[in-house]
Design brief:
Elements lengths: L2 H5 L7 H17 L12 H8 L3 H13 L3 E4 L3 E4 L10 H9 L5 H24 L2 H15 L5 H19 L2 H14 L3 H4 L4 H19 L3 H19 L15
Antiparallel strand pairs: 1-2
InterPro entries: GntR_C, TF_FadR/GntR_C, Tscrpt_reg_HTH_GntR, WH-like_DNA-bd_sf, WH_DNA-bd_sf
Organism: Cryptosporangium phraense
Pfam family, one: FCD
């Protein structure tokens, strides 16, 4: 990958900004297997030459890669790529790269499983503890969604807002933070968003109404089951078919 031709000529900037750019490129190359597991990254002088940065920037970038679990720098062996199970998928740069190079959609499938588990639990908690003002916000959000059935982009954004209201009302701040982080990165992928039809929107709307009704009724068990069904079912409807012959995927630009 030609760093200069992709990003244009490097201009003097703060080393932190340059370091962020170097890290993003190296993460992409590791996740895409341009640098396979147990292979050595280029040497410091080689990276300095390629990216037009100082040794200080390169060393800081390598430290960041180590913190993300992608590499280990060892005297005498250089900086070598580690096995994927140790990579920090909650790191936004790593997660974005994984989604970008996820040929068989395994990461997105896993993301849906995590999201369904956490959100079903949070929906149940919300049904047990929701206050009247929060219940009214949820009902009002249904009206917003109903007005946007013919606008897929706007509907998707307000769909996220509907789920956010439930998570906030649950009081589970950690669960909310995890879902907010991973879902925001997934939504950057066109393969995650799909191209929902009007029928898909209407089914989604009907399920949202059922979820709101179960929360209002205080049915924690019922809404937990429905939330899981809703999230998994929505993904299955929009999940693109995986072609084994797929070879080219987007790279960092």
């Amino acid at each position: 990958m030609d760093f200069g031709s992709s990003l244009g000529p490097i201009r003097p900037r703060r080393s932190g900004r340059l370091g962020d750019t170097v890290v993003t490129y190296l993460v992409d190359r590791i996740v895409s297997a341009d640098y396979p597991v147990d292979s050595a990254l280029p040497t410091e002088p080689e990276l300095c030459e390629e990216f037009g940065v100082s040794r200080t920037v390169v060393r800081e970038s390598i430290k960041l890669l180590e913190e993300k679990g992608l590499v280990r720098a060892t005297p005498g062996r250089g900086t070598r790529v580690l096995e994927p199970p140790g990579w920090n998928l909650l790191d936004p740069i790593v997660l974005e790269a994984q989604i970008r190079h996820d040929r068989e959609l395994k990461i997105l499938d896993d993301l849906i499983s995590v999201r369904a588990a956490l959100e079903s639990d949070m929906a149940a908690a919300t049904a047990r503890t929701i206050k009247a003002p929060q219940q009214q916000e949820l009902a009002d959000q249904l009206d917003v969604l109903a007005d946007l059935l013919d606008d897929a982009g706007a509907y998707a954004a307000e769909d996220v807002a509907f789920h956010e209201l439930i998570m906030v009302a649950s009081g589970n701040r950690l669960g909310h933070a995890i879902i907010h982080s991973i879902h925001s990165k997934a939504r950057l992928s066109s393969r995650y968003n799909g191209t929902p039809t009007r029928a898909d929107q209407e089914q989604s709307m009907a399920e949202h109404r059922q979820i709101e009704a179960l929360i209002r009724a205080g049915d924690a068990d019922g809404v937990a089951v429905l939330m899981r069904t809703h999230i998994v079912g929505s993904w299955n409807r929009r999940r693109p078919e995986v072609h084994r012959s797929l070879t080219a995927l987007p790279t960092v630009e």
